[in-house]
Amino acid sequence: MRYRPHRHELNAHQDNPRKRLLWGATFIAVGTVFLLDRLDVLDLTQYLGPQSRWWHFLPLLVALGGVISVVSAQSVRRVLKGLGDIVLGVWVFVCLEQLWGLTFANSWPILLIAFGVQMLVRGWLGNSRTASNEVVQ
Known about the structure:
It is built from 8 helices and no strands. The chain has helices spanning 7-12, 17-38, 44-48, 59-71, 76-97, 104-107, 109-125, 128-133. The longest helix is centred in the N-terminal third of the chain and has 22 residues, at 17-38. The protein is flat.
């Protein structure tokens, strides 16, 4: 008996042009900002502060990836994955910056709650196969 992939498995590997456009525009925008800073046209320390730790902003790329996943999603499952990435990226950023007194040590239950909400929504929508085939418009 030969294995034949389901239709949703084939679609998962197809190229998503909307996602490529959004990532391309993001890289162009971020690259332009850094280039202008390097050419002394723009002073990022004015906006980020003289003691800025630019690497603290890297988790926001995970959150941005989540936003792009939500915007370009073709299924409810992809929307939920994108929302999970947004929560994770923002949580890491908030902990690194210690905003609102949150640190990794005292705020890790937020991830448990977010993961639980994601599981409830997926369960409410039905099994993973049904949720992945449902088209978002």
